[in-house]
Each structure stands twice: as structure tokens, then as C-alpha cells.
Design a protein that fits this description.
single chain, alpha+beta, Cathepsin B, Chain A, six-stranded mixed beta sheet, three-stranded mixed beta sheet, 13% strand, globular, binds 2-acetamido-2-deoxy-beta-D-glucopyranose, Cysteine proteinase, hydrolase, cysteine-type endopeptidase activity, Prot_inhib_I29
């Protein structure tokens, strides 16, 4: 289960350790369904606190957090019990967000994103990327295996997922074009994109536009991430530049084709993903015909398992969320999802570097 497609990037022992941790918590929560004494749940809570080094200022706060934890645990058990296919369908777990209520979580991580493309003027400026060479696509693609994806990082309590998506997409195309994987500055995008709102959120169309207009972006090493609003640094280097931003317009095949060529920025409604612990997420808790977006992330590949087709999505909530920081989300679904599961196909965007645009050999 652990390694549908991850074998190379992470040392085996990390996989083993995280698997063992989630297994022990999962086992205790199964036992809780049978015994369910508050004392046992409290012990589990304390073990969880220790594991996540979570301390509370006073007893009142601890009691409040325990209430929320209990309610989340009930929810996690309920949702896991409803799974139809335990081998492929997504599962929930007691992760680091287990002491946050869904409302708090939404406020801290998932503020609804204003989609700039609903504004006609900005939409007109966007150029559509037309792919010619889309026949015989591989059955699966994983840009991580090709060394085009940097490590999953943790945005912290700064809603900068949009900036992580933008740097991730540029890191990908830069590696594909130049052969170098360079970790780029998320903080620069947070501080400097005038059309976004720093840690209060943003969208990738604007942020790619900033990088284009600025003539490039600095490295993470020179302009490191702080998880806070900051002032735009005048001495930022221009290490990697991009020439344009294009959008994928059309049915899912168009997105599949583009992902076979490079990592692609997308937005989704992530309302159901607070406790996501792995497996293929089928869009439970997303409304089918809406383009609502609460999280911007990066598709880094696609594949299939047990008859389920999925996208591999890089998130910025740390490696201790999901499948070592990644989400598998269902693709190739019926027309009931006009924008794809959780609207993942509502507005995909990707940067280009000229060499790629003029060649179809990638
Ligand atoms: C960060 O800056 C944005 C405006 O760009 C503002 O809306 C937000 O409140 C700021 N966040 C913090 C934590 O200061
Ligand atoms: C997700 O949907 C289920 C019903 O399918 C509901 O019980 C649950 O509260 C929803 N969760 C969130 C986080 O909205
Ligand atoms: C989505 O579907 C529901 C019911 O099927 C309908 O009431 C609603 O108007 C639709 N919304 C959009 C944005 O198409
Ligand atoms: C989509 O699913 C169908 C079967 O339901 C399969 O034949 C087809 O190859 C899939 N398409 C892609 C692009 O994976």
C-alpha cells in the first residue's frame, strides 16, 4: 500500500517508521470502537500529543482540544468504516491536524480562493496551451522518478500553497529543460507578487505573472522560507526565469497530455482532506459541478491501481500528511464531474521556458 509508486525518493526506513506510527494509532482507534471508554481515548490523545510534541497553555485549552480530538476520532473511524475498497480507497488518520476542528482547519488552511479567471479581462490575457503530440501517452508518469520534483515542504500556518505550487512547477520545467533541479524561493513569491495576498492566499496565474515580469526567481537557499508575510527583498537573484504561463483548456485528456510533459499547477477543493492518510481520494466532500477552489497544488504524475486511475499531487502540508506529503486523487471519472474530481481540471496552468515551446521532443 505504502508504495504505489514511491520507491526511490525516500529512504526505506522513513517509510517504515511512518507506517509503523500510523499503524499503531490505527490499531488503537479500532480498539476504541469496541471499548470506547473516555479513559482510553484520553490515553490515545496523550500519546498523540507526545508524538506531535503538542503542548497546551492551560488545562482548559487541553480539555477543549481533547473534545475536538474525540470528535475527529469518531469522524475518522466513521469515514474509514464506510470504505468500499480498503486496498485502494482513501483512508483517514489521526495526523498532526487531529486537534483542530474542521472549521478551524478551513480557516487556517483552506480559505476559499478567488479564481482570477472568473474576471473576463484577466482571463483574456491567458494563453491556451495547445498540445499537438498527445498520442500514445505512457500509462503512468511520475516526475519524482525523473528527478524533477523537490522535497515536500511544510507551509506552516501561512496560506502560501499557491506559491509552493508555482515554484514547484518552475522547478519541474527548469529541470526538464536544463537538467538542473534547483529549489526555488517560495518566500520571494509570497513577499513580492503584488496581486496576491502573501500568507492570506493567492493564485498561480498572478504569481507566474510576477516571476515573468520580474525576469526570474531566486533560490530557496538565498531567499529562504519563513512562513510569514515579509517585505520583498531588493537583492533577490534571478536564477531561473520563465517565458510564459499557459493554461490547459479542454477535457481531461488535455491535462493528461500536459502532465506527461511537465508538472502542472492546479487548484482543488480540499475540504475533505484534513485527515487524509493515503489511498485514492474519490472526491467525498466536494460538490460535483462546482469550481470551488480552496487549495493550490501541483500534479507531478499519474497512474492506476486496482482499476482506479489517479493523479499524483504534491501538497505543501509537510511529509507527515497523506502519502509522505502527496495526495492521490481520482481521475478518468464520469461526466458527473465536469471539472474533474474536486475541480482539479478547472484551471490547470503551467510555465514554459522557450526551448520547450519550440520543440516537441520532450
Ligand atoms: C499578510 O499580508 C496580507 C496582505 O498582503 C494580509 O491580508 C494578511 O493579513 C497578512 N497576514 C499576516 C499574518 O500578517
Ligand atoms: C464529508 O461528508 C460526510 C458525508 O458524506 C459528512 O458526514 C462530513 O461531515 C463531511 N466532512 C467535512 C469535513 O465536511
Ligand atoms: C449543480 O447541480 C445542482 C443540482 O444538480 C444544481 O442545482 C446547480 O445549479 C448546479 N450548479 C452549477 C454551478 O452548475
Ligand atoms: C479511463 O478508464 C477507461 C475504463 O473505464 C480505460 O479504458 C481508459 O484507458 C482510461 N483512460 C485513461 C486515460 O487512463
Amino acid at each position: 500500500m505504502m508504495s504505489l509508486q514511491r520507491t526511490k525518493l525516500f529512504p526505506f526506513f522513513i517509510v517504515l517508521v511512518s507506517f509503523t506510527c500510523s499503524l499503531s494509532l490505527a490499531m488503537s482507534s479500532n480498539q476504541l470502537e469496541q471499548f470506547a471508554s473516555e479513559e482510553e481515548v484520553f490515553q490515545l490523545f496523550q500519546a498523540w500529543q507526545k508524538e506531535h510534541k503538542r503542548e497546551y497553555g492551560n488545562q482548559e485549552e487541553k480539555a477543549k482540544r481533547f473534545q475536538i480530538f474525540q470528535s475527529n476520532l469518531r469522524y475518522i473511524n466513521e469515514m474509514n468504516a464506510k470504505r468500499k475498497s480498503p486496498t485502494t480507497q482513501h483512508r483517514l488518520g489521526l495526523n498532526k491536524f487531529a486537534d483542530m476542528s474542521p472549521e478551524e482547519f478551513m480557516k487556517t488552511y483552506l480559505k476559499e480562493i478567488e479564481m482570477p479567471y472568473s474576471n473576463l479581462e484577466s482571463r483574456k490575457k491567458l494563453q491556451k496551451g495547445d498540445d499537438a503530440d498527445c498520442d500514445n501517452l505512457p500509462h503512468s508518469v511520475d516526475w519524482r522518478d525523473k528527478g524533477a520534483v523537490t522535497e515536500v515542504r511544510d507551509q506552516g500556518k501561512c496560506q502560501s500553497h499557491w506559491a509552493f505550487s508555482v515554484t514547484g512547477a518552475i522547478e519541474g520545467i527548469n529541470k526538464i529543460v536544463t537538467g538542473n533541479l534547483v529549489s526555488l524561493s517560495v518566500q520571494q513569491v509570497v513577499d513580492c507578487d503584488p496581486a496576491s495576498h502573501g500568507c492570506a492566499g493567492g493564485f498561480y496565474f498572478n504569481a507566474f505573472g510576477y516571476v515573468i515580469e520580474n525576469g526570474g526567481i531566486d533560490t530557496e537557499a538565498h531567499y529562504p522560507y519563513t512562513a510569514q508575510n515579509g517585505t520583498c527583498k531588493a537583492n533577490a537573484n534571478k536564477v531561473v526565469s520563465i517565458d510564459n504561463l499557459l493554461v490547459v483548456v479542454g477535457p481531461e485528456e488535455a491535462l493528461l497530455c500536459r502532465v506527461s510533459k511537465q508538472p502542472v499547477s492546479v487548484s482543488i477543493d480540499a475540504t475533505g482532506l484534513q485527515f487524509y492518510a493515503g489511498g485514492v481520494y474519490g472526491g467525498e466532500n466536494c460538490s460535483k459541478n462546482s469550481t470551488k477552489a480552496t487549495l493550490v497544488c501541483l500534479i507531478v504524475g499519474y497512474g492506476s491501481v486496482g482499476g482506479e486511475d489517479y493523479w499524483i499531487v504534491k501538497n505543501s502540508w509537510g511529509k507527515d500528511w497523506g502519502e509522505e506529503g502527496y495526495l492521490l486523487i481520482k481521475r478518468n471519472v464520469s461526466d458527473e464531474w465536469p471539472y474533474g474530481v474536486c475541480a482539479i481540471n478547472a484551471a490547470p496552468g503551467f510555465p514554459i521556458i522557450k526551448e520547450v515551446a519550440s520543440s516537441s521532443a520532450i
